[in-house]
């Protein structure tokens, strides 16, 4: 499903006016009476997840015979640019699955319909509060939380036990010590971290009490002393005994997951979107062998991981009939029943507490992730926030390959941020 969140910048979108707002996003029949056909863009994994979203859409159509849904699966890696282009011109979907980092930027550009008080969001209180907050821009809600996620330490209990390790590490130093012990006593690599990806580096920043920017204070903090310390720790996770050297190839993510799933590496930092695939691995035929714990803390004694996930958003350029149908679909996809269905089929985390049924929580992966969701860090209300990961990831890649020292690499990122956020101080 994911990913790497280093999406391309939305700066151009923020300057584009709503040229196409007067026409239906789907280009289909816009009459207010009779059947309405809406277009829904789905960005889930086409093989593992999308078929279950299609099944939900069929259930929606059966319950709403006057609404037909044109279901279009759009690869996640290209969806942001395609949405940006379509909503700034023609051919935008009436309703779509929006990564949480895109929502405020699209809202600022005027592309999204506010959903407060609409059938799409009749009761915001049933959702995890931080997820509703992430869907807001300037006091209005522009997305209904569909799935949520965060990062955790996934580990192989059998290998940990073989190495004489009885509990998951709670600090980065403990993790490095465990990695060396796993290499020595279990004969496998102890830890593999996804390199050159800002999203996976966020727990290191949080562990030093900082972020890429201070949104409330309008200050760039990515090259602060705390951030430098965080990234130095991050870099050490590729060079310490028992840790895997930074893999910056295009297939790095697949290499990491293959090694973990087959018991060649004992621990990784990963999200719940991979739990279903992990269970298919040879090392986890017994699901109980998968350990899931909070990401380790930094030197401040604190930690946490970013809150990710997806909202369902409605295009502001659709006509009234299409908006009404789109709002119904948004409500259906985010209902307790649908959330439960998706959790059982896709192994994803529900966004509302009433979807964590006994059957859902019987999946140890979901239950373990639910336990650490409360420590996840919500994103600030900053439309440009998703675009910050691009430069950060690029310079992390240079840092871990010794093409740049830590401070110089982060200074370069800060310079890029100053162009993106001209009203922020450095």
From TrEMBL:
GO biological process: maltodextrin transmembrane transport; maltose transport; transmembrane transport
Record organism: Kitasatospora cineracea
UniProt cross-references to InterPro entries, sorted A to Z: SBP, SBP_1_CS
UniProt keywords, alphabetically: Signal, Transport
Single GO MF descriptor: maltose binding
Pfam families according to UniProt: SBP_bac_1
Taxonomic superkingdom: Bacteria
Claim: Signal is one of the keywords in the record: yes
Official protein name in the record: Carbohydrate ABC transporter substrate-binding protein (CUT1 family)
Signal peptide per UniProt: 1-19
Any one cellular-component term (Gene Ontology): ATP-binding cassette (ABC) transporter complex, substrate-binding subunit-containing
Keyword Heme in record: no
Family membership: Belongs to the bacterial solute-binding protein 1 family.
